[in-house]
Amino acid sequence: MLCDSTLRCDGLLLEGLLQERLGNIQDATRWLQVAVKEFPDREEPLQALCRLLFEHEALPEAEVAIEELLRRTPIDAAAYHNLGVVLVRQGKQDRAIHAFQKSLELRPDAEMTQASLDAVLLTRE
After folding, report:
1. pTM for the whole thing?
2. Same-domain pairing of 94 and 63
3. What is the pLDDT at residue 5?
């Protein structure tokens, strides 16, 4: 798949997933970064990279990746929520509040996002 230009993006994604399953998070990250770089017009590589970095607590890297995802797809409510979580974990409460609020503008009935926003606001009191 990696040698076939029509399948290369999928091959890179699969290799990244395989490396993640094997516990090789750094290798998985590298494979997904290659996919993002080589296929900037496809959303799947960046989404996969964001998920990997978020789930494995690579917070600064996840922040950058999610912000890039939001630059490309500014109506992704889940990405705003995840950005808020990443920002809270890094102690960036003011920016987290904004991210949660933006997520709620796009998805007003998201109970988890509302609870996350409420929790951050309570810490500021």
Report:
1. 0.90
2. yes
3. 80
